[in-house]
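Handout, page 2. Input:
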Amino acid sequence: MAAPMAVDGNALPGAGGAAAPPPHSVLFNYAVTAHKPTAVRHCAVGHFTAPNETNLIIGRSTHLEIQRLEGDGLKGVLTVPLWGVLSAMKLFRPKNASKDLLLLLTEHYKFALLEFNAAGPDGAPELVTRASADVRDAIGRPVEAGQLAAVDPDCRAIALQLYDGQLKVLQLDDGGPALRVAGETFNVRLEELGVIDLAFLAPSGGASSGAGGAGSSAAAAAGGGNPVLAILYEDTKQARHLKTYTLNLATKELEDGPLTQPNLDAGSSRLIPVPHPLGGAIVVGESVLTYLNDQQPTRSTQIKPNTAIQSWCKVDDDGSRYLLSDFAGGLHLLVLAHADNRVAGLKVQTLGRTTSTSCMAYLDNAYVFLGSKGGDSQLIRLHTEPLPPPGGAAGAGAMDADGAGAGGGGGAGAGAGADAPADDGGPSYVEVVDSWPSLAPIVDFVVMDLERQGQGQLVACSGVFQDGSLRVVRNGIGIHEAAAMELPGIKGVWGLRRGWLDAYHSHLVLSFVRETRLLAISDDDVLDEAAIPGFDADAQTLLAATTLHDQLLQARARGAATAAAAARRRLRRLRRRRAEPSAPAAPPQVTSGAVRLVSASSGALLAQWAPASAARNATPGSITLAAASPCQVLVAAGGGRLWLLEATEGGELTEVAGAVMDAEVSCLDITPVGADPHRASLAAIGSWSMQASLLALPGLTPLVTQPLGGEVIPRSVALAEFEGAAYLLCGLGDGQLHNWRLAPETAALSEHKKVVLGTKPILLSAFSSGGQRHVFAASDRPTIIYSANRKLLYSNLNANEVAFLCSFNTSSFPDSLALVKGQQLSLGAIDGIQKLHIRTVPLGEQPRRIAHQPETKTLGVATISTPAGISPGDVGKGHLRVFSDTTFDLLASYALGPQEIPTAIASMALGGAGGGAGAAADGAGPSAAGGAAGGDESGALFVVGTAVIRPTEVEPSKGHILLLSYTPGAASLTLVEQLEVRGAVYNVAEFQGKLLATANNKVHLYKWAAAGDGRHELVSDCSPIGVQVLCLHLAVRGDYVVVGDLMNSITLLEYKAAEGALEVRARDQESKWLTALALLDDDTYVAADNSSNMVVVRKNPDAATDEERARLEVVGRFHTGEFVNRIRPGSLVMRLPDSELGGVPTLLYGGVAGSVGLLASLPKELYTMLAALQDGLKKARPPRHGRAPRAACLSALPARARHARAASRRAAAAAQVVRGVGGLDWESWRRFKDERRSEPATHFIDGDLVEAFLDLPPARAAEVVAAVWPGGEVSVDDVSRRVEELQRLH
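Output:
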């Protein structure tokens, strides 16, 4: 039996690795999604949010995205998680309705109809469930080719293909916009078992029903008012045919339809219903496209060259043009030439190469969305004329046949690759407008901690065929430095513009202890020292800004000029290294002695204000703090004094108000929030009394005072707006950040939250990036604060000790920032503001396995290349590619033999191996066993397992183990040893200085032994042991070997060194088809199976009987919803040393849909608390307004499901604390389930559900905590703090 393509092995370090976690903590696990799925399975276009809005609906496995088409592109409207995996999605328009409904079907037989509501109970957009049901049958064989759904164009019925030989029909009421599922659902028998595709047809010449968006074409009734269903199927002789049925809704039976077409193209895979007025259907084959209509002659055309079409979409409403996409990314236009509503012929034109798509949607004006499961999804634009080739050459980074990067030698950079697959030489009419990076499918990955700080970056093998790539995933936001210089002693930095409306900054202001310096960009792209006459250069600047009236503002301190002449010399010239895109905007400038207003055009001093002129006891130099709005300045001095000044259009500084606070002012801000973006109505103040206050402007009248608790002084406050919502932020001296939602009109504070960003004082400053305003929090862990989906998020800046940051946007440094890091000033751009960042290293071929070799600072990547024109089932060419682990440049390659593919790779050191005089591996594959000379010293080796694929073999009977050495600086690999084995080598791992390998169903142990004449070779150390069916996975520790089998779960082996034998110690008695395996500790193991479950098993060494000791006990079950291919130890975030969860062991897992998950082993007491919280979040509560949920309108449920729902409503309310979209149930979603059984989840916490607690309104969160802990033993703050700690694990 051939191994499934998506399952992979796992090799873990042996004894001597990290210390084991606390006893029994591995029995209590926390599973959470660190990165949402990126594979696009389904998409649809229509009018979902409003009748006059065009929407793109994207289904990403377990998430649903709703986007709106606007003039400048696609804009996100709503993203919601689903408690299920999407198997079908359709958008359709009920009769007489003004907008579309969305049909969802999940892999576990949950059905729902959804409607968009622009303003839910809390004012936010939501999805309303119009109908939902469990469409599972008690008996039936699930379809193997995937579930199918079709909607009748006249909205009379929905057909679901869920089980072989059976069709489930949901009849719809003809109730106009108030669509209902009427009567009972019913099943009809199908004679055709191998259904490939199905669709309802619209007959030619029929009448239109009026109509809506995509998938809801107008069509007339057929067959006496009954829908006509077309079915494409395969018979037992693998021939493919088309048959139609009339669905009689009165008798609930299928009757023979008007059209039958036997013996279609052998590769027919798609059925396209053609709408009114042409009618009929198009059958898409690998070599022929056929138009069928019972009232017209059959028309056909050939596809050249032959290819497998994977997706299609309609271009015109009349169905005369369609876009087709094949598995290799070829995009084709199919045109139905017609006259008088009769099709005269078919024509196909190739438009170009794109990503390999799984679905497509034509938006408007030649814009098309391409959704992909195996590459990046794209937004493209089609042109009527061919486009010039980009750069006039093939994309860099594509691999040639011998492994060298295109256009380079051993150091050719694969990382410099092209954005799209290489062209086949024909004209291209496709322009890629936008692209969404995808990790899917993650076939394998490694976690590298290059800086050894506990924060890893994940390097994944992603993509299929020509879309294959390495994806480098890291937490935090990177800085792309463009220029830098050593400049110690900087105390502040600001950017100035000459005019308020200017796009570019003109000057950069640097403040030192006793002086101020200005820099400006010269004509030759050099940042030189400059001067503005009105600026006081001999005092420390506290604030600098451009005002609304094109004036420059400076608040300064008095004092003698510093003697830092060396710093001045360094300041003279800061040369530009390179320009990188970044962000605009600028703040004002103030010093501690006075506030100065300077003309932006002439540089002359216009006005000056000092506290001595306003307060009898104030002395020169007493200004301690300053903040500014576009036309206001707020300054503070000792004794809690505050003054509000206004910069007038006439060039004056007018004192508006003064006040004395009850305590010393420690920080302040007057950034405008609310309706007026130019004038602040509120001032935020932090004081030495450990309070944050809001004052009304212009009178400086106290409005709100918020105690901060504890004895730590607030060091920085900020007023900010994110996604239209106002916030008050307050950073403390111990690294804690408080935030509140702010109502600017009333100054009311709500939804207080507290997070720990670091351990040192926080300094907050606003900046712009990509046209959006964000807040930077300087501390020992610099953090950028931003908002997504109306939730504040925090991303670490991947740079240490950034003390100050401001926007500095110039023509030489566009969209850039100025940063002060330690003793250095630098200019540069930052990555896009998001939590996880993905770097793409295009390969142009499919990566299959990856291993990191720290000794040579390289990555070994096993790949399979598929030349253009190859069919999906053909075997490609196997290679081992070696890349730098920092630059990801291609360093060396080794080509495998004919029909040989790589199946496993690991990096290890075997005694006496490496660095020897082996044969240079410059492209020649292995030809015999044991032929290469061994090295004379120890070294790191890449160990590659292979399989030789023969078409006549069900399972490979031959493979090789290759030992390859890479020497830094070399352009090739050295073949140290090659060993032929019987079977495919599915996994290799280092084991006590020896090589452990699995070949088919046997586990082999080899040692590196001297063979005479200074040579070494691999020799068997013990007899191979047979284990079950196929040994796909390995994990080792100490004397134990854990083997994961294709069908029969986990087997535990023990190595007896004295006897030189491997023995079976225990097995999991349950049958599971494993896809990944890892160790939690010496006695506990975690595995993933092909039903998207995760299972934890434990050995029982202290059991009373031999039978119990030989059994691995299942101690945890959980449904992840992701087909997991790899589980490895590691973390993407740096742990705080004093964090409560700093020592918690974590595993990362990735799978087919492109999601990255985290598995953390928790202490028992924390698990107990989270289990109670999880139970409280999923419990039902009475509806607040006493009305039944919209989902209750479904009357077409089977009797069994209807009675169960009624009982549920009697027992509890229908609205949950955390509700599932479409009436989907959390309990059934997270249950362990496979083809034979279904059991409740045990000993797992669903982190996605628990972390939703942080999104609840404060009142609702308090209700949940009070319900779970009625005695008050746990507070809302306690729960929030613990959940936030968990959230920081990913």
